[in-house]
Amino acid sequence: MEIGxxxxxxxxxxxxxxxxxxxxxVAEHLDVAIPAGGFTAIVxxxxxxxxxxxxxxxxMLKPRSGTVLLDGRAIGELPSKQVARRLGLLSQTSTAPxxxxxxxxxxxxxxxxxxxxxxxxxxxxxxVQEAMAATRVADLALRPVDELSGGQRQRVWxxxxxxxxxxxxxxxxxxxxxxxxxxxxxxxxxxxxxEQGRTLVAVLHDLNQACRYADHLxxxxxxxxxxxxxxxxxxDAELVERVFGVRCRVMPDxxxxxxxxxxxxxxxxxxxxxx
Amino acid sequence: xxDHAAIPGRAIRLAGGRVSAxxxxxxxxxxxxxxxxxxxxxxxxxxxxxxxxxxxxxxxVLVGGGDPGSQxxxxxxxxxxxxxxxxxGVALGISGTVFQTLTRNPLGSPDIVGFQQxxxxxxxxxxxxxxxxxxSASVGALVGGMATAAVVYVLSIKDRRLSGFRLVLVGIAIxxxxxxxxxxxxxxxxxxxxQEATRWLLGSLNGRTWDDATTLLIAGALxxxxxxxxxxxxxxxELGEDGACxxxxxxxRARLGLVAIAVALVAVTTVAIGxxxxxxxxxxxxxRRLTRSAQPPLLASxxxxxxIVQVADIAGQRLVPSTxxxxxxxxxxxxxxxxxxxxxxxxxxGRA
Lengths: 275, 352
Prior knowledge:
The structure holds 2 protein chains of 2 kinds.
Chain A: E1 12-21, E2 24-34, E3 39-43, H1 50-57, E4 65-70, E5 73-74, H2 80-84, E6 87-90, H3 102-108, H4 122-134, H5 150-163, E7 168-172, H6 180-195, E8 199-203, H7 207-213, E9 216-221, E10 224-229, H8 231-234, H9 237-244, E11 248-252, E12 259-263
Parallel strand pairs in A: 3-8, 3-9, 6-7, 7-8
Antiparallel strand pairs in A: 1-2, 1-4, 4-5, 9-10, 11-12
Helix pairs in contact in A: 3-5, 4-5, 5-6
Chain B: E1 10-14, E2 19-23, H1 25-47, H2 55-62, H3 68-103, H4 115-130, H5 134-155, E3 157-158, E4 161-162, H6 164-188, H7 191-201, H8 210-237, H9 241-246, H10 251-273, H11 279-291, H12 298-318, H13 327-348
Antiparallel strand pairs in B: 1-2, 3-4
Helix pairs in contact in B: 1-2, 1-3, 1-12, 2-3, 3-8, 3-10, 3-11, 3-12, 4-5, 4-6, 4-7, 4-10, 5-6, 5-10, 8-10, 11-12, 12-13
């Protein structure tokens, strides 16, 4: 279960953090290390604190105690722009300004690389082009974002995060509100980005998708880590019941061999699985 | 499907790449046209009235020539008024853009959410209760406007986030409260105080002198340059507070700074010419529609604001020659009609 020996220093590390909004404490003594070069999925039931953890990792939520380390240094003490050149974020709550075009939105991802005088360098132009090409939105460049479909829009937001050119990419529920086709499209794109060498951290709802795409899983329940490790090592029927309170069978995904969860039926009918 | 997209606008790169920008053409052209229209309106305002001065003569006086008579009429009688109108318009246009972008709501403009009313309350308090006049009334207006803004701002923040919708609602409630207070103070005021007070109830450019214009010029010189920085922060902040944080903006600091600039701009104009309604509300909306810009159109709104105030003042003075109307009445009428149109069309398209 320990990854410390296998990997170099985790680029992002929440050390003994207490996470809270105003009065409500979401998690205490939480310790989470993100493996370098990995695709980490944070899973768990609603209100288990997974998005809160991601917000803390992205320095949007200041821990009440403990620290989040970025490359070994307290993230809250680093200049915000410097952090933004290292760590990109696909937030659930971002909203596109009325009428903004795809290219203009993607270009905003360059903000941490720009200054009052340097607002559109050659690097900016190249990064925006590359980000749009990688997410296959170049053809939509001049379209207003609010006229796009949900899947296209999510690709545009991803393009904006890519234009930021960060090694670390945090994704808060990137597939929510998308139909199955667009969910797969976005996750395949994430897998591609991961293969290119980026470190990804995603909050995911669908456990099967998490097992398929991630190589490191962090399962949370009530603000505590229940299991962490490669999906094949940690996911079994007992874990799913402990984390989600759902009885299920776990079998190998016929496509990828990763664990696949099949929830138990309400009235269990014993069906022989043809072997 | 192609991998290379055409990126609109002209890329400008100078000094070996140390200075660069992408300039979209339409906003530049539109802003240029608005600027020319504003100058024309200003020259017209300076040249007409009881003693007409032809436009050519106005221009030659402005560049330092002209005969002494024209010089006196232009420089002493009419120019201060025009300078005040233009600067207040610019300030209101910028302030409105900042607020509407921060609140993501066209109603989130300083005149709707009570800052101007608060300034009036401050001034009335000084005039009717402390029995001060002139400068002390201006101080009262400044304090009143700032205090109202602080209360609205603090009440709109929850979980360290600013909710635009909350700000609009809280602002309207506070605005109503201030209106009631203003009426109360007016009803108890002595007749002569009431006279002094009406100057604070309706925005007016009557009798502006170089003193007023100079104050505005100094405030503008201090505040307008900061707005260039504000533009960059706004552009990121309008993606939402999480998104802005992800792009490396210190959200709380930026937000507070932006509100402070915008409130300062409104407060200064209210002290100079009183509460001029609807300019801060309409200028950004008009500018955005004209430029079709996805960015907060700070520069275009500034020029639009100046144009609106200048044209409203000309109309107020010339429309009914026997009874000149204060500029605030004109902008209120035009702005009210515009607001009705805005709400009606947005409702029909199902966006409001």
